[in-house]
Amino acid sequence: MESFKKVASMITPLDKVNVDTDQIIPKQFLKLIQKSGFGKFLFFDWRYDEHENKRPDFVLNDSRYANSKILVAGDNFGCGSSREHAVWALLDYGFSVIIAPSFADIFFSNCFKNGILPISLDEKTVEKLQKETNPIEVDLEKQTITTPSEKIFFNIDPHKKKILLEGLDDIAQTLQYEDKITEFEKNSGIPPILIND
Amino acid sequence: MGKTLFEKIWESHVVVERQSGPSLIYVDRHLIHEVTSPQAFDGLRLNNRKVRRPDLTIATMDHNVPTNDRSLPILDQTSAIQIQTLEKNCRDFGIKLFDINSPNQGIVHVIGPQLGITLPGSTIVCGDSHTSTHGAFGALALGIGTSDVEHVLASQTLWLEKPMPFEIRIEGKRKNPHAVTAKDIILSVIKYIGTGGGTGTVIEYRGDGITDLSMEQRMTICNMSIEAGARAGLIAPDEKTYDYLRHREYTPKNYESLVDSWRNNLKTDHDAKFGKQFLLHIDDIAPQVSWGTNPGMTCDVTDAVPSPDEFSKGDPNQKKGAQKALDYMNLKPGTHIEDIKIDRVFIGSCTNARLEDLIEASKVIKGQKISPHVRAMVVPGSQMVKKQAEEMGLDKIFIDANFEWREAGCSMCLGMNPDILSPGERCASTSNRNFEGRQGTGGRTHLVSPVMAAAAAIKGHFVDVRKMDLS
Fold it and tell me: Is residue A184 part of a domain?
């Protein structure tokens, strides 16, 4: 995973609450066995009509936001299915920061495994950011969002911040605790699955 | 101070605890399926890692398998590749796979309990949000993403932030328990607390309204915890739990001694504190029908579709969401639910495709025919459910009523296989999500119980199943 430092870009406003992962990446695209190439299917049913023509009223089809790296959305973003394909699609499309009043738990966790920074801010601040037409800068190190008119601080768990800043391999970190895992297994109360064949 | 059941399971699985931030939690059971695992196995190969505990891991194929004739090849090439990839990964890494021809194949959350692989007091994970189903057995069962699937394969552990325990107390007696079901209880809960109401929590369902339920009904409740945004949902085990798991194919050899220790330990102490609480009296609840595009957009079958103002209670974002949902669903506020005509009926999914669900639905349709304009299908949750149902003659009841009787899989719950709605079609579905396009692009899903779905199939529109003879 690449390390995450600063992102500066226009925001893309997605003025919707409860955006579920079925919308972020519809089921017909979950059959691929790689992690790459999902960006073209991001928000597919909202981006394209039944003849796969672009829907002009959907924000991702608005050329003003073509190079945006920051998505600003409504409450409970990423709810529903655990599919990490949703995060792969956002990342592959070009988003590396998602700002919303709240996120669903599994989606939130999936973001950090792939180098996407999810930031939750109060509803009023999110609404204000959705209207911001100038580029903004997100600085993870300083935990700030800078707009032409103000500087907004955001909270992040220090452990998660470190993972993003250093682009750490989660599994390599965990395997350093090998002796503790082995020790735990010696005393585990739950037996293995008895597979006979 | 006492502890909640969740806290007891959590504490007994902590491998590493830090001053702050996430803890490293041990995983007792890892369930794998074809859709969310290929990239995880790729990651293992790339880093030259092996599966740490194949003996705590099982796999099956459920999400994209066709539900028609199993002797035919899979026509969709990308589905076929995904299935072959799972076969190869299980072979290469030594994981037991219940493949498409296995008598144990089925939806992963149906087969886990049926095979005695799900155990009380254990931690269970799967790359699927409905893993919460296994909480019905007093397990801490979590849905995870693919990166975490890889992490568990490699280390048998997960870094987790400790969620807050949330008590949902269900009290009272349903007047007609055949017509008002576990599905109606959980849809009612989500209607009140909302799709984000459980975010950051593990729900423990308690009260006589829960202990009265069978194991299969409890699974329906825990299954939909994720639709309230909860990390997991669980129910303290009791004698029903232990009886259900006693003589299964993979029930552990030392089961009775395990049960002895579970009886002593797996309960919430009377002086434990929950971070959040919610109480629902169920004496008078009605069958539920969802009208919108998330499971919180639900009302009584006797109600009318609400206006965005009524639904949003002043929240402008919710109002916008409700308006958009009504547009998508092509419904007008004030329309009586019973006046909504349907095109399709789907009885299936990890929420409602167990034997009891099929028995209850069959009582509604026995000796009747489905409405001529309706196409209806039953997709049993597992091959074992299908076999048991056939031994009871349920397949004949459904087929005689003009239902299609299918092979096991997730099917039209998420429409990854050929079982999908056409654009504009309206479906009474026993599944768990009514999101836009979930059952097929442009399809319109109404979430209901199996008996409500069966009744709608007969009448061609929603109907209050309490009015029907279910004896």
Answer: no
